[in-house]
Amino acid sequence: MSKLKRQEKLLALIEENEIGTQEELAEALRKAGCHVTQATVSRDIRELKLSKQPGRNGLQKYYVPRETGAAAEDKYIRVLREGMISMDCAQNILVVKTVSGMAMAVAAAIDAMQFKEIVGSIAGDDTIMAAVRTVEDAQIVMEKIGSVCGT
Predict the structure, then answer these.
(1) Which of 3, 80, 128, 131 is found 20 to 30 A from 97 (Cα to Cα)?
(2) What is the C-alpha separation between 49 and 102, in angstroms, rounded?
(3) Contact assessment for residue 118 and residue 106, using Cβ atoms and an 8 Å cutoff
(4) DSSP letters of 66-127?
(5) What is the chain's percent helix, strand, coil content, to nearest 5?
(6) In terms of C-beta density within 10 A (0-12 exposed, 13-18 middle, 19 or more buried), how is residue 139 classed?
(7) Confidence tier at 69 by pLDDT (50, 70, 90)
(8) Least confident of 47-51, 65-69, 102-106
(9) Is pTM beyond 0.85 here?
(10) 93 pLDDT tier (thresholds 50, 70, 90)
(11) Span 18-32, average pLDDT
């Protein structure tokens, strides 16, 4: 099972069940057909930025915190400013170069800004490719990102 599928299954499990420990989460994943170690579960929790909150039974349970409002927007702008090195487009494909290891965070920031012109994006280690609806929209997105980053 791929990392993405495993993490999707993990998120579904914590959404459907009150899981409060890494051991419980690892066991639930194993029952769901994912062969995981404690270290893998620990990394997934960190990568998915899971937190704990009181559950219905009074015990702590994992959940995905949702940031909204100005604090979330400030965070995305900061990630863009600190992570992005350059951007260019080839027709309607926007290519964003980032600091090594920052592409996923920058792509998440761009996705969170919900540019209606972007259909979807793919992030590697230091490069993001975003499919934009039209060539004209690609220029609009570049201008919007540039204005957000102060360039």
Answers:
(1) 3
(2) 16
(3) no
(4) ---HHHHHHHHHHHHHHHEEEEEEETTEEEEEESTT-HHHHHHHHHHTT-TTEEEEEE-SSE
(5) 50, 20, 30
(6) middle
(7) low
(8) 65-69
(9) no
(10) very high
(11) 94
